[in-house]
Design brief:
The structure holds two protein chains of two kinds.
Chain A (H helix, E strand, L loop, with lengths): L2 H6 L1 H22 L21 E4 L8 H14 L3 E7 H4 L9 H12 L3 E7 L20 H15 L5 E4 L16 H18 L4 E7 L14 H10 L8 E7 L18 H11 L7 E7 L12 H18 L6 E4 L25 H10 L4
Parallel strand pairs in A: 1-2, 1-8, 2-3, 3-4, 4-5, 5-6, 6-7
Helix pairs in contact in A: 3-5, 6-7, 7-8, 10-11
Chain B lengths: L1 H22 L5 H8 L1 E6 L2 E2 L3 E3 L5 E2 L1 H13 L2 E6 L5 H6 L5 E7 L8 E3 L4 E3 L1 E6 L12 E5 L3 H9 L4 E5 L2 H11 L2 E5 H7 L5 E6 L3 E8 L3 H15 L2 H11 L4
Parallel strand pairs in B: 1-5, 1-6, 10-11, 10-12
Antiparallel strand pairs in B: 2-3, 3-4, 6-14, 7-14, 8-14, 9-12, 9-13
Classes of the chains: A alpha/beta, B alpha/beta.
Chain lengths: 373, 252
Amino acid sequence: MPPFSLRRDPRVQRRWLLRALAAGALGLAAGSTPLPLVTLGPQRQPLGCAPHVGVHTRLTDEVEEWKIKRTLEMVREMGAHWAVEYFPWAYIESAPGRFDWSHSDLVIAHALRQGLQVVARLGFVPQWARPADTATSFLPQERYSHFASFCTRFAQRYGDRVRHYIVWNEPNLALEWGFRDPDPEGYALLLRRCYSAIKEVVPQAQVLGGALAPVAAAYAGPLAMGDLPFLARARDAGALESMDALAVHAYGWSAPPADEPGPDRVNFRRTEVLRSFLVDSGAAHLPVMVTEAGWNDHPRWTRAVRPAQRTQYTRDAYALAAERWPWCPFVAMWAFRYPWPQNSYQDYFSFVTPDFLARPIYHAVQDYALRCR
Amino acid sequence: MRRVAFVTLALLGASLLYYVFVAGGEDDSWDRVRERGRLRVGMDASFPPFEVVDAEGQVQGLDVDLADALARRLGLQLEIANIAFDGLHDALAGGEVDVLISALPYEAQRTQDVRYSTPYFVDGLVWVHAAGTGEPDAGYSGPVVVEAGSEAAMLARDRLPQVTTVEVMSEGEVLARLAETGGYGIVTRVSACALVADQGLAIGQHLTEAPYAVAANARASRLADEIMSTLAEVLESDEWMAIRRRWLGEAC
């Protein structure tokens, strides 16, 4: 059949038409740059008149960028100035020397664009840095140098953009120390290594030590060491020389924020007991930064309060810290939002639901933080 | 062709033998419970009227009676393990208990490990109003009484922007206010059940739903089968209706 006839055949014509369309689509795709789905948006400034208001966000496992952005927008819109966020070592350096900064880059870029101060909590040991069948909180002492190298790389990556670091989390709990006996001297050494690593890169950064679980002596046991004895031994091992501030976890449980403090009581003002410890240890120059705090209003949790109490206590706690604690630059409440429902009491610490519905406590804190506007 | 058919049949036969004698044979969960003679039920006794520790230290409540009815029909003695709410699923997965009966919310993401029953009670937020008056109509813009800071307050703000919320300090106060002044309120259904009838109030439609179900270990499939089929019998019985009336009142 001659070529002319071929081109008149409708089946052949359809085939050529499809080829032409496909070629056109490919050409368009090759010649244009797709627009980003989520942009950082304009540079924002913190709102309101409560520069000490902070929250612990929980973006570690938040995958979608628009949700990261929306979360941090809502943090700012609530009137917070500080965002504490967890950056797991294992997520970033899953193999020795192989770094994936994509998620931490997103979180930090969006937080800074919202005008928030980022407090980076570092921890979570990758599999390659610990023995087989150990927990992610298990870091053998011979691997401290690897963690310090990670601290260096993190500080190099973010430089002056991240000015506050928390080294480890609640090392006075066996759970957070690889299911071993808490080891204040070991922690002091770990803190010293990471402190030096960060300060060498960003001398003006502030390294926070401690971040201990609030444990009164009466509740101490094989699973948890009292925070005061832990601090005393860590101090004797030189920990206070390896921190620029003490991180404190100040949960109120069922007591209101003004509840009297005491070494044997776990409440919001236990923070003052820890502050006194610093003063008595000759470290009055160290500020105290509350990196976790709050109340819970789960209907079935033994340490919970009623929703109205939680709202009032949280507002009162922010106010108390601002009025009475000149040595405390911020209070970060746990936890702003979870990426998905935890289906446990943890959901009732949050300020915003996973689908971005603001709980009444969000509006109450917003009223407090933006009252001057 | 004949060889292919032979190989296929051989493989099918081997799979069947493996399932019957190896995979299926490993699940002796129901036999072990029968030998033990006790049904171990996990519950967090801190949620009246479903389960609570009374003044004598005994666990009482709707779930206790339901567990008792289930155990009796299975020919077993009831053994209750009082476990904090957040430890219930771990206790089930670890084999410390055979079943959870604890006003347990259904969680879709657990269904690989957990076999849930059909819900035996649907909690969630409900309208409450004076008995004899109807539901608020769609355009209602008057006051609605809610517990301050609660999910009811969040829902009213988000879904009913036209109403004026009146916030009080507890769900009990919501009901007391409605009994005194009339009007509308939003509370959890479980709170409403026990109290509305005495106060001349009625429960209206659900605004949210939170179904409670019995949970068994999906990996102990034969035990789960026995529990679920027997539970279905209990939930259709007059005994179950009596249990509901006893603990939830006539309103529910």
